[in-house]
Amino acid sequence: MQNDIIQTQGLSKKYGKKFAIKNINAHIKPGEIYGLIGRNGAGKTTLMKCINGQIQPTDGNIFVDGKAYKDQSAVRIGSLVESPNLYGDCSAYENLMYKCIALNIKDKKRHIAELLELVELDKTGKKKAKQFSLGMKQRLGLALAMVSNPKVLMLDEPINGMDPQGIAGIRETLVKLNRDLGTTIIISSHILDELAKFATRYGIIKDGELITEFSSDTLENESLSSVTVKSPNINEVYEALKEKYRLSQENFIDANTLKIQDGAEKHREISRFLYDKNIYLEEFRVDHMSLEDYFMHLTGGEKP
Ligand code: ATP
């Protein structure tokens, strides 16, 4: 079993008497794309800020690569939490150059050229950052977060307010970073359909507490939600399954089709059972829950 690259133990942050996050035990493995999900005010930004050293937790510990985390610069965590800090009157190249100088990066020009290519801002020339679109600003923020070649990249709502093309651009860049450089990515987003396209694991925060962590495989395999069976002999299917799956007339969605909610976990069992009975089926479909459905199921019906 691989060590966690980031682990938090009992991490809490209080503002006055109120917990912004409470007793968070998060586990992030190297190479994961970890989606952090929660409603507004759930505590996602606070957790990220504690991990990147922007704020001090009230209680608990953070371990990076198994070592107690004290000095942020030693562990190379890049982050884009809240809007990127850009020099509006400078070009993308100049913004990156300032950061390279501040971090004493070697071979600055080559590094900047690679970063600009990575985020597809290599053709922006002298254009000032304040004239960039939201997506370009976010991509420059991403490049700035990558200046130190971080092992872990933390992004808070990086696609908020962007158009579908801009969102796809950020996704492609992140997937490329993760695949080519093995960068671990922690990303929060309210756009769960988008997150579900590339996250490999998820953590759900509700009212400051991390209520669960699960992998994309779990989402695929365990959150199955229904089986739909269509047959010209649907009454035979009904009779065969009625008792075992407690079916009633309400399971008919039309004259030839039955839908069995929560039956999908047992879809193999159902299909084998019907196969053994030798009943002809026109359709046998397993519907998976979406990430949003699963989130709502786990948090008691609240949309993120
Ligand atoms: P959003 O999706 O809206 O960005 P979030 O999940 O990132 O929300 P946080 O910004 O971490 O949530 O906030 C968690 C809680 O902590 C909220 O109740 C918020 O009001 C509170 N909080 C955050 N920062 C501060 C602060 N500086 N002072 C007081 N309360 C704060």
Topology:
Elements: E1 6-15, E2 18-24, E3 27-28, E4 33-37, H1 44-51, E5 59-64, E6 67-68, H2 72-75, E7 77-80, H3 92-102, H4 108-118, H5 134-146, E8 152-156, H6 164-181, E9 184-188, H7 192-198, E10 201-206, E11 209-215, H8 216-222, E12 224-230, H9 234-242, E13 252-254, E14 257-261, H10 267-276, E15 283-288, H11 291-299
Parallel strand pairs: 4-9, 4-10, 7-8, 8-9
Antiparallel strand pairs: 1-2, 1-3, 1-5, 5-6, 10-11, 12-14, 12-15, 13-14
This protein binds adenosine-5'-triphosphate (ATP).
What do you see in this structure?
Helices cover 35% and strands 26% of the residues. It contains eleven helices and 15 strands. The strands form three sheets. It has a six-stranded mixed beta sheet, sandwiched between helices. Strands 1, 2, 3, 5 and 6 form a five-stranded antiparallel beta sheet that branches. A four-stranded antiparallel beta sheet has the order 13-14-12-15. The radius of gyration is 24 Å and the shape is elongated. The model has no long low-confidence stretch (mean pLDDT 89). The structure holds adenosine-5'-triphosphate. Adenosine-5'-triphosphate binds next to helix 1.
Number of helices: 11
Percent of residues in beta strands?
Answer: 25-35%
Order of helices and strands: EEEEHEEHEHHHEHEHEEHEHEEHEH
Quaternary organisation of the protein chains: single chain
Question: Span from first to last CA?
Answer: 32 Å
Shape: elongated
- How many β-strand stretches? 15
Poorly predicted regions: none
Strand order of the largest sheet: 7-8-9-4-10-11
